[in-house]
Design a protein that fits this description.
The protein is mostly helical. The chain has a single domain, classed as Aminoglycoside phosphotransferase (APH), C-terminal lobe (Aminoglycoside 3'-phosphotransferase, Chain: A, domain 2, Alpha-Beta Complex), CATH 3.90.1200. The protein contains 7 helices and 5 strands. Strands 1-3-4 form a 3-stranded antiparallel sheet, with helices on one face. A two-stranded antiparallel sheet has the order 2-5. A hairpin with a 4-residue loop joins strand 3 and strand 4. Helix 1 packs parallel to helix 5, helix 3 runs antiparallel to helix 6 and helix 4 packs across helix 6. The longest helix has 22 residues. It is globular and about 50 Å long.
Length: 202
């Protein structure tokens, strides 16, 4: 086993380039098909910091997303995907080599599932600028926000991020405010995207 050399988080164009290369590879037989809903129902059921109305809404929303996923619009050909390609999981070494970390969610699925992660940093949270997003989409060659299935994958990504916060809050009450904030955003209590106030869970 080799230690990871000195590195930094990947920049949008580097992430896009690495994903483009990954998405052109043949699908290895050991990869299973992507499951965008893995563990979400369990996290909702264990959401001790949320009220009954919010838990019921999340469960219903999850059911609706399942139905919509089964009718996902046609996009790019399915291929190997990383599954969780945020900038902390895509790093560039001091030698200029971009590497993927944390391959737990690697699977076969729509390449747009990897692209949406960067897109929602702009459209849902305002964490990156339009110029930064443009460098990402230009480097990949596709603007996923223009695809008919974008809003569905966006909604699923936001749901995953919310359920992660809900689980974390159940284990550490210090995160209860952040979990509730994310639920309130999804329930349209706090206006339209991009929503301020989504903070990393430490």
């Amino acid at each position: 086993m080799e230690e990871l050399p000195p590195h930094r988080n990947g920049q949008p164009a580097e992430i896009a380039g690495a994903l483009h290369h990954l998405h052109t590879l043949p699908s290895p037989p050991f990869l299973s098909q992507v499951d965008p809903f893995v563990r979400l129902a369990e996290r909702i059921a264990a959401a001790r910091t949320l009220g009954a109305s919010d838990r019921e809404w999340l469960s219903t929303h999850l059911d609706d997303l399942h139905v919509e996923w089964d009718a996902l619009p046609t996009g790019l050909p399915w291929c190997p995907i990383h599954g969780d390609a945020w900038d902390g999981n895509v790093v560039t070494t001091d030698a200029g080599v971009t590497l993927f970390l944390d391959l737990e969610r690697a699977s076969v699925g729509p390449p747009e599932w990897d692209l949406v992660h960067t897109a929602i940093k702009l459209t849902s949270f305002g964490w990156i600028s339009q110029a930064e997003y443009d460098t990402f989409s230009d480097a990949y060659g596709v603007d996923v926000t223009a695809w008919a299935g974008f809003e569905l994958l966006r909604d699923i990504r936001e749901m995953r991020m919310t359920c992660m916060a809900v689980q974390t809050a159940a284990e550490n009450f210090a995160h209860a405010h952040q979990a509730q904030h994310r639920v309130d955003c999804l329930r349209e209590r706090l206006g339209r995207r991009p929503w301020p106030g989504w903070e990393p869970l430490s």
